[in-house]
Design goal:
Elements: H1 3-11, E1 27-30, E2 33-36, E3 39-40, H2 60-82, E4 88-99, H3 107-122, E5 129-135, E6 144-152
Parallel strand pairs: 4-5
Antiparallel strand pairs: 1-2, 2-6, 3-6, 4-6
Helix pairs in contact: 2-3
Length: 154
Amino acid sequence: MGHDERLAALIGELPGPYPPHEPLDAVVLHGGRARTSGQLARDNEGKIVFPGTLGVNVETAQGAVAARWCALNALSVLRSKLGSLDRIERVLTVLGFVACSADFSEQPQVIDGASALLQEVFGETGRHSRSAVGVAALPRGASVEIEVEVALLA
């Protein structure tokens, strides 16, 4: 089963794609790799999922759901650019940002929502390196944002 087929079986239709504002690209291809711009947690209607701040008005489990939506949006822009997720050989890295209070320390558990989805879709080749960083605020009031870099099949 290919990546596109596995994703369809897991979740059905992808949201978006929701490209960034000008002058940015949603995905940059270079040297056998593809890297997304930051992807927010947007649902099928383009609305931000669980906006707010972790440790204030968003719970860790809600943040993990938001991170999953971020990963879905990353896959959406990747598929739009590549034509098919089956062109992806391996997920290399995820950079996750969590809007949180100064005393919040569960950023890894939040970004696990994105990491788990990528492993569900890509299997062992979905395992990746990762950073989970707490920040004061994110665009559009989002609680989570991720970037994804993948290696492409030759």
